[in-house]
Amino acid sequence: MQRSLESLVQLLESYRGRDKVIRTVCYGSQLVGGVLSRGAEVDVRSQRLGKSLLLFSAQLSHCRTVLRLFDDLSMLAYSHSYGLGNGEEDAAVRWISVLNNVADQLYYPCEHIAWAADADLIRVKSDKWWLFSTVLWGTSLLLGILRSLRVLLLLRKKLKKRHEGRNSRSQLRRQMRGELLSILSSMADLSNAIHWMPPGFLWAGHFPNWLVGLMGTTSSLIGLIQMNASSGDQSDTTQSSSPE
């Protein structure tokens, strides 16, 4: 119990860890609130609790938007350190990663403008800027999926080589599991990104609150699992702070 509490405190003390916890609680509240709101005709108390949880989720989402006002420089530092990915062995992984960094970098100023417009700090319509940010987020997620698929293919080829030692094969399998989790997480987020696109685009606008919460909670829990797994390797990089 004491060790679990210490781990949670340590997680909350880091910016990335706190953001992941807030994200999980945000989508979890939307999931439960959406489910309770569905039974509103039967139970008035469920309706009230459901609405409260949805409002709580919206406030946490706004909190994360405000905190992301300070992410531009850290993302820029990561993009600069990665550069054109000259350290990558595979050209496809290299260029997909570069495009992914560009999409992530452009996401932040678009979201900042949309937030400032909604807060009446600037006189522009926020709708198109929210659309731009959603498109960039979806693009980043799609590129992330393509990158993980390419990495999986390369890892499978390495795994088939007979001269690989037992420790090396175990490490390759662990990396493959990590990429599979990344794909599942990105697909869950991409389904929400499409939902927030303008009506008429695929299933845009058709997800109920509980389904948005389910997809987001799934992605958030995977993110927490990956952060916990990578904490021993001290690999909490800026890239792990994907826009949503």
TrEMBL record:
Record flagged with keyword Ubl conjugation: no
Keywords assigned by UniProt, alphabetized: Membrane, Peroxisome, Transmembrane, Transmembrane helix
Transmembrane spans: 129-155
Subcellular location: Peroxisome membrane
InterPro entries: PEX11 (IPR008733), PEX11C_met (IPR026510)
Biological processes, Gene Ontology terms: peroxisome fission
A GO-annotated cellular component: peroxisomal membrane
UniProt cross-references to Pfam families, sorted A to Z: PEX11
Domain of life: Eukaryota
Tagged with keyword Transmembrane helix: yes
Name the UniProt record assigns to this protein: Peroxisomal biogenesis factor 11 gamma
Organism: Oreochromis niloticus
